[in-house]
Design goal:
It is built from 17 helices and 20 strands. The chain is of the alpha/beta class. The chain has 3 domains: 13-103, NAD(P)-binding Rossmann-like Domain (Rossmann fold, 3-Layer(aba) Sandwich), CATH 3.40.50.720; 107-313, UDP-N-acetylmuramoyl-L-alanine:D-glutamate ligase; 322-459, Protein-Tyrosine Phosphatase, Chain A (Alpha-Beta Complex). β1 (15-19), α2 (26-34) and β2 (38-43) form a beta-alpha-beta unit. α13 runs parallel beside α14.
Length: 461
């Protein structure tokens, strides 16, 4: 497809519809309008809800189709879907039958990106792993562009990139499901049931994730978690010339592994020490695993000093076991990203040895069973504060777990949950927001939920 300018020129005589005016598509809309391309903006929010953005788009010449019927009679030559709208949507299928070209911001970026791409996906840990890879590369002197599902669109920045740069991208299953191009280095952190409220079933979710590596060539590298059955089996299907594994429990022939507190790199069983796991300042075993994945992704292209420097300085990503404050001997952590039971379990295990846990959980469920989460809560949490639409499901899971002493508190709303958690905490305790659910019952995204939590905590006196 060429560069960004050529891509925009190819749209000059076409009508382009962009579905969703959120974070990922707003720069795309602005890019199209600046290029004087006939653009339709479709969003389920009203004009008033979109606010200044709607006014700005309209002033720049966009046609707006907003509200409940935003997908009715969808007609355009090219349609960019928002990641949250599945390609199986009836309106999209009808548009495709009429000849529309369905694509996305990320698919076009892969077509025109002038530099190498490292992409990360998985059920848990993908944002931290993406950030770690980017930080290691930066510490090694590389020019890095980080984006994708991490919240930063990249298409509008493609003309700023150079062949020697590196794009480090987080990809969700919703982005991957229609991808027909894979990155130079693909990393799959792990896979477990997730987003089953949107995907038809687990098989569709697993297949969507596989697009991150399935279109690779012999010149590429694929990195898989040896400790996860699904990702381990992915390796059998991977066409990449380099297949690397990472493992917390097993030596690997090619890749990175942990043994007795030391992280090793192996190349055809030629083993070198990378660093000590204790050098990693991020809490929790899951973050050691994230480092293993990141090290495998950059193996052979950076110095060990750059990896060690990152381990000793990188303090994590906002909303991911983020330390908020300590008040009267109680520490508060924001793990709002934990929108699945498996992710919340990782958060509990990361902090359980640092103090008794007061856990705030609940929100909108994803259709994932809470059984294992209920057992984890019963075994490692002192007080559980429940909030949101799925509170009753978590309560049931906890009641069905092997009985131990656990206090369960119901709250009337999110702020009430935080205040009750604070009231229940004693000196030495940890108040942890790790919801095991999405935020969409109350908030527009996990960032808003996390920021609300931090605001409430920082107002405590």
């Amino acid at each position: 497809m060429g560069d960004l300018k050529s891509f925009l020129n190819s749209l000059k005589s076409k009508c382009v519809a962009v579905i969703g005016a959120g974070i990922s598509n707003t720069p795309l809309i602005e890019l199209l309008l600046e290029a004087k391309i006939d653009t339709i903006v479709c969003d389920k929010r009203s004009y008033e809800e979109l606010g200044e953005a709607a006014k700005r788009f309209e002033e720049q010449g966009a046609k707006l189709i907003l509200g409940d019927g935003y997908l009715n009679d969808l007609e355009a030559d090219v349609i960019f879907r928002t990641p949250g709208l599945m390609p199986t949507n009836t309106a999209l299928k009808k548009a495709a039958e009429k000849g529309a070209d369905l694509t996305s911001e990320m698919e076009v970026f892969f077509d025109i990106c002038p530099c190498k791409i490292i992409a990360v996906t998985g059920s848990d840990g993908k944002t931290t792993t993406t950030s770690l890879i980017a930080e290691i590369l930066k510490n090694d002197g590389k020019t890095v562009h980080i984006g994708g599902n991490i919240g930063i669109p990249l298409l509008n920045r493609a003309d700023e990139m150079h062949p020697d740069d590196i794009a480090v991208i987080e990809l969700s299953s919703f982005q991957l499901i229609t991808m027909q191009k894979s990155p130079n280095t693909a990393v799959v952190t792990n896979l477990s049931p997730n987003h089953l409220d949107i995907h038809n079933d687990m098989d569709e979710y697993v297949e969507a994730k596989s697009n991150i590596f399935i279109y690779q060539t012999q010149a590429d590298r694929a990195v898989f978690n040896l400790d996860n059955e699904i990702t381990r089996n992915y390796a059998k299907r991977a066409p990449a010339g380099e297949i690397f594994f990472f493992s917390m429990h097993t030596k690997v022939k090619n890749g990175v592994f942990l043994e007795n507190g030391t992280i090793y790199e192996s190349r055809n069983d030629d083993i070198s020490v990378v660093m000590q796991a204790r050098d990693i300042i991020l809490p929790g075993e899951h973050n050691i695993e994230n480092y293993l994945a990141a090290c495998a992704a950059v193996s052979g292209s950076v110095s060990y000093d750059s990896i060690r420097k990152t381990a000793r300085t990188f303090r994590g990503v906002e909303h991911r076991l983020e330390f908020v404050r300590e008040l009267r001997g109680v520490k508060y952590y924001n793990d709002s990203i934990a929108s699945s039971p498996s992710r919340a379990i990782a958060g509990i295990r990361a902090l359980r040895k640092q103090g008794d846990l007061i856990l705030i959980a609940g929100g909108k469920d994803k259709g994932i069973p809470f059984g294992e989460f209920g057992t984890e809560v019963m075994e490692n949490v002192k007080t559980l504060v429940l909030t949101g639409a799925a509170a009753h499901l978590i309560h049931t899971a906890v009641e069905n777990a092997p009985p131990k002493k656990l206090k369960v508190i119901q709250s009337k709303d999110f702020e009430d949950a935080v205040l009750k958690a604070s009231s229940a905490a004693e000196e030495g305790d940890i108040v942890l927001l790790s919801p095991a659910c999405t935020s969409f019952d109350i908030f527009k995204n996990f960032e808003e939920r996390g920021n609300t939590f931090k605001d409430i905590v920082n107002r405590l006196v």
